[in-house]
Design brief:
The complex is a heterodimer of chains A (152) and B (252).
Chain A: E1 2-3, E2 36-38, E3 42-45, E4 56-58, E5 64-66, H1 73-108, H2 112-148
Antiparallel strand pairs in A: 2-3, 4-5
Helix pairs in contact in A: 1-2
Chain B: E1 2-6, E2 12-17, E3 22-25, E4 30-33, E5 37-42, H1 53-61, E6 68-73, E7 78-83, E8 88-95, E9 101-103, E10 108-112, E11 115-120, H2 126-131, E12 138-143, E13 145-152, E14 155-160, E15 165-168, E16 173-177, E17 181-186, H3 190-195, E18 201-206, E19 209-214, H4 218-226, H5 242-250
Antiparallel strand pairs in B: 1-2, 2-7, 3-6, 3-10, 4-7, 5-6, 8-13, 9-12, 9-16, 10-13, 11-12, 14-19, 15-18, 16-19, 17-18
The chains are: A mainly alpha (152), B alpha+beta (252).
């Protein structure tokens, strides 16, 4: 059993850290693919004319659509489904938070314990509202960036 | 398109892209990138751009994601950096139509557009596959292009001759050429199984072909770290508890 990293496949001498034989210059691996040059820590690849194998561009959802293929509905439906579920969950939590604020404020006037609980509930709910607002602003910013991104 | 591995213990792979060049990845290993690199999701993979729900499902089972992330440069000098999740090494393999590779489930870091990641079941026996420590499934890389693999710890590569076999703890199997046969067998002898501390199973890799072994088994690392993780009661679990004793007996 030959320890692959140690011996040159051509002359059997030791290879250096880059997988190159100091004696005959052979590399660790024989090249198998046209336009590909590899060493242990690097590779150079000649790509086809135009750069990409599959020509196409992403849509506003971030789904790649190849030019010569039918629309990728599976990925689009999945993306829209996940987005819808996220919006519904955030919406429900938003309503719950608003209810929490109202309930907390109502409890504030019911004595020392009520005030403490009310502050806790209202504070937590308020914090959640802030997080939701930050999330909405991030989404809006993302939409703005997508619209301004140059298409291919 | 140029690839360069940088760093030492936790290396990264820097990919330099010219206009419209693409590199693909199956799960979130992105470290950082230049603003002129555009991300998009697709289910298509490989030179033909073949896609489908079944292919996506196979990719998930094999350890990849449901979707493929494409990183495409919009102008010259785009750069994407992929980072290792664990201390280890990043290596490249040239995947050809007649030279597929098998990689452990989280081993595929990224690759050129022609690479197709799928799932493979090499084990003949269901039980040994399930309990073999490496999982029943491997990632199968086929198509045509260069794939970059992430292996944990140091890498030791062996060139197996036809019929030559090396027995490896399943967690230390990193990758191997498609010509190598992979079977999971049990350690012989009940005493060895229960008191040897090496677990029940060993992977038999039989040549011809090259195999890449990793010195760090992810499962072993997780087990070692778990002993020192704080528990809910505030103490660490580094004790000679019954569970620890049983775990020690069974190994990994």
């Amino acid at each position: 059993m030959a320890e692959f990293a140690m011996a040159c496949p051509t002359c059997g001498r030791s290879l250096d850290d880059h997988g190159v034989c100091a004696t005959c210059g052979a590399t660790r691996d024989r090249a198998r693919l046209d336009g590909v040059t590899t060493s242990r820590t690097s590779a150079h690849i000649e790509t086809p004319e135009g750069g990409a194998l599959l020509k196409g561009s992403p849509d506003s959802l971030g789904v790649f659509q190849a030019d010569d293929q039918p629309a990728n509905h599976f990925l689009r439906i999945t993306t829209i489904g996940f987005t819808a579920v996220t919006i519904i969950v955030v919406g429900i939590l938003f309503v719950v938070a608003l209810g929490g604020i109202v309930a907390g404020l109502a409890l504030l006037g019911t004595g020392p314990i009520g005030a403490a609980v009310g502050l806790l509930v209202a504070g937590g709910a308020g914090l959640f509202v802030v997080i939701v607002l930050v999330g909405v602003s991030i989404l809006a910013n993302e939409k703005k960036k997508t619209e301004s991104q140059p298409s291919q | 398109m140029d690839f360069n591995v940088k760093g030492t213990v936790l290396p990264v792979l820097e990919v330099s892209l010219q206009t419209n060049e693409v590199v693909v990845s199956t799960h979130g290993d992105l470290g950082w990138m230049t603003p002129n690199v555009q991300l998009s999701q697709t289910t298509a993979m490989g030179k033909s751009g073949g896609r489908g729900i079944m292919k996506a499902a196979k990719r998930v089972v094999g350890g990849g994601g449901l979707f493929i992330t494409r990183y495409q440069a919009q102008s010259d000098q785009g750069s994407v950096v992929f980072a290792c999740k664990l201390p280890g090494n990043i290596i490249n393999v040239e995947v050809g139509t007649d030279t597929p590779y098998y990689v452990h489930r989280s081993g595929f870091l990224c690759g050129t557009e022609g690479i197709e990641a799928s799932v493979a079941m090499q084990q003949k026996k269901l039980t040994s596959g399930v309990f073999g420590g490496m999982g029943f499934f491997l990632q199968h890389l086929q198509g045509e292009g260069v794939a970059w693999l992430e292996l944990s710890g140091e890498i030791f590569t062996y060139d197996l001759q036809a019929g030559e076999t090396i027995r490896v703890h399943p967690g230390h199997v990193g990758a191997f050429e498609g010509s190598v046969q992979f079977n999971v067998g049990t350690i012989p002898g009940l005493a060895n199984k229960f008191f040897g501390g090496n677990g029940f199973f060993l992977a038999d890799l039989t040549g011809p072909g090259k195999v890449w072994l990793q010195s760090m088994s992810i499962a072993t690392l997780a087990a070692e770290i778990a002993d020192y993780m704080p528990q809910q009661n505030g103490s660490s679990s580094n004790s000679s508890s019954l569970g620890g004793a049983i775990g020690g007996l069974l190994g990994n």
